[in-house]
Inverse folding.
């Protein structure tokens, strides 16, 4: 029997999911690792942890499914975007990878804007300079770790580091490369002008492909380490959000989805690049050839719930119990608002200094109220992105939801009322890995197009409908949410400068 392997390198774990030719899950494996935060606002991981986790996840999935390595006809990859992996000439990792949620490079973003110009930067890379993106991280290393920078020979993204280990090739694809801020996004090619203005060596960058292209084949050394078959094709794959778009069928105009994972994402497909000139939401190349995505991202979505359950409650209750307690709290959490800015915020406020906050906390509030306020606060931050989409004239009549938060009927219901549209959740728990597998299937010729492959996926959707009472409450709550942020915006910067 023939199978596709989808590998998803996330922020908290790496997943390996095996799909048959009809994209039914045959087996899956999962291996987790830590997020290191050596300083406030920093986020790092050792790329060698991804290597070990991928090996463990692949081995676990193959054992579970009793599947032989020779049965794989294609491998696709998805991964957390923007992370900076720096290698020397011998492919040794020079420093821990600086991740998508790291906020250390604010000064470097200002330098980028000065060197290139805000309007020119947005016109070319489709985004303003942001600390989460890769380019500013490169400049930070050059300024603060010159000895490491001097030894650099290659720059890769997280999933493309695994690709190197599998194929011994330096390759990437357009969807993930879009988040480096070194790509001409409308033209789908590296920007020679941006690289020259920032004085970044073009030879350090990987070769660029479309997401369905075969980028290499599993080497003999990789086959021995990962337990795979030498010569298995490895397809371009996609950044996590573009892969999830494929895995939810968001491959045509008018379709959209929300992901609630570590971060939260609102994303829609467009047939031409739709760029917000104010830079409040992002535009990237889609994994679908000749298509793009427009998306907003809140940095601490599921991370907000994880923080509360692990750091505050010290693991005394499970996620399922937390959701049950939140369900007992009314809409609005008894007038308690949560602002999910634990790592600063990206869309649409672009504020690296913002930090988390509860507003309205009183003696009446229960643990369930606090948990529900976290779910609502994350949803308000996604509504912030939704409002920009509406301003840009981007419309959709329904919303898919995926990621860990999609498993919560309560959270899906909150989103339906925030967006005032029906929300659908399919029964695929691993949309990113599914998207990677679909791209692998198209890349090796098992399907003629992404559209044809997606039409074979049996999506069984659970649906939540908005109700007028909660929609009205959240409209008022959203106005207050926006006002409070504007009221305290300057105070965040003052707080960041305070020392004990």
């Amino acid at each position: 029997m023939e199978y596709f392997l989808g590998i998803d390198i996330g922020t908290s774990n790496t997943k390996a999911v095996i799909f048959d030719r009809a994209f039914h899950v045959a087996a899956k494996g999962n291996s987790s690792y830590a997020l290191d935060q050596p300083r406030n606002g920093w986020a790092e991981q050792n790329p060698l942890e991804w290597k070990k986790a991928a090996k463990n996840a692949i081995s676990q999935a193959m054992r579970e499914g009793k599947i032989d390595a020779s049965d794989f006809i294609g491998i696709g990859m998805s991964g957390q975007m923007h992370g900076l992996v720096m290698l020397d000439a011998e492919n040794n990792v020079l420093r821990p990878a600086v991740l998508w949620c790291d906020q250390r490079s604010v000064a470097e973003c200002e330098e980028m804007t000065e060197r290139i110009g805000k309007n020119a930067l947005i016109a070319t890379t489709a985004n303003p300079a942001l600390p989460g993106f890769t380019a500013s991280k490169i400049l930070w290393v050059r300024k603060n770790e010159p000895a490491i920078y001097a030894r650099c020979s290659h720059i890769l993204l997280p999933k493309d580091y695994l690709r190197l280990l599998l194929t011994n090739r330096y390759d990437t694809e357009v969807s993930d490369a879009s988040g480096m801020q070194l790509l001409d996004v409308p033209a789908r090619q590296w920007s020679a002008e941006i690289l020259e203005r920032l004085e970044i060596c073009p030879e350090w960058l990987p070769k660029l492909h479309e997401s369905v292209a075969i980028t290499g084949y599993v080497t003999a050394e990789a086959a021995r380490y990962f337990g795979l078959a030498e010569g298995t094709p490895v397809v371009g794959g996609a950044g996590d959000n573009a892969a999830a778009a494929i895995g939810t069928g968001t491959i045509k105009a008018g379709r959209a989805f929300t992901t609630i994972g570590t971060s939260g994402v609102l994303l829609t497909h467009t047939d031409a690049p739709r760029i917000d000139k104010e830079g409040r939401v992002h535009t990237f190349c889609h994994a679908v050839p000749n298509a793009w995505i427009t998306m907003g991202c809140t940095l601490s979505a599921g991370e907000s719930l994880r923080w509360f359950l692990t750091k505050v409650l010290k693991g005394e209750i499970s996620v399922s119990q937390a959701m049950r307690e939140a369900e007992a709290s009314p809409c609005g959490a008894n007038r308690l608002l949560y602002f999910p800015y634990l790592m600063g915020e990206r869309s649409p406020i672009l504020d690296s200094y913002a930090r988390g906050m509860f507003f309205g906390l009183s003696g009446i509030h229960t643990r369930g109220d606090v948990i529900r306020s976290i779910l609502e606060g994350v949803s308000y931050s996604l509504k912030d992105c939704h409002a920009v989409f509406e301003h840009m004239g981007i419309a959709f009549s329904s919303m898919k939801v995926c990621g860990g938060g999609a498993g919560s009927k309560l959270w899906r219901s909150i989103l339906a009322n925030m967006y005032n549209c029906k929300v659908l959740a399919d029964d695929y728990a691993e949309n990113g890995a599914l998207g990677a597998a679909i791209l692998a299937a198209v890349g090796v010729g098992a399907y003629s197009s992404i559209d044809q492959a997606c039409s074979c996926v049996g999506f069984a959707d659970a649906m939540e409908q908005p109700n007028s009472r909660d929609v009205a409450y959240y409209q008022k709550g959203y106005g207050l949410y926006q006002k409070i942020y504007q009221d305290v915006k300057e105070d965040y910067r003052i707080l960041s400068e305070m020392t004990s």
